[in-house]
Amino acid sequence: RTLVVVRAEAQAINTEIRKNEEKVVDSVAVAELSKPLTAYCRCWRSGTFPLCDGSHAKHNRATGYNVGPLLLKKQKE
Ligand code: FES
């Protein structure tokens, strides 16, 4: 048997999208949401995936990456 261990920290998540920004966060306004704000993880490090738990901040500090969540915001009427 061969055990292959892949260190996730060694792999870049965002190699080309908006690299000049400190953190890449996008938001979408949605009319029908039960909560005012929901953040979805795009770094794959969240302990509550698919929701963002803020783990991207530690990952970004350790790697120099700038990945951030996708925010769904309840559209104001
Ligand atoms: Fe992954 Fe926030 S924990 S984007």
Automatic annotation (TrEMBL):
Cofactors needed by this protein, per the record, are:
[2Fe-2S] cluster
User: Keyword Iron on this protein?
Assistant: yes
Instruction: Give the record's keywords alphabetically.
Output: 2Fe-2S, Iron, Iron-sulfur, Metal-binding
In alphabetical order, the GO MF annotations are:
2 iron, 2 sulfur cluster binding; metal ion binding
Iron-binding zinc finger CDGSH type domain location is 23-62
Q: Might you name a Gene Ontology BP term for this protein?
A: regulation of autophagy
Q: Record's Gene Ontology CC terms?
A: mitochondrial outer membrane
Protein known as: CDGSH IRON-SULFUR DOMAIN-CONTAINING PROTEIN 1
UniProt source species:
Salix viminalis (Common osier)
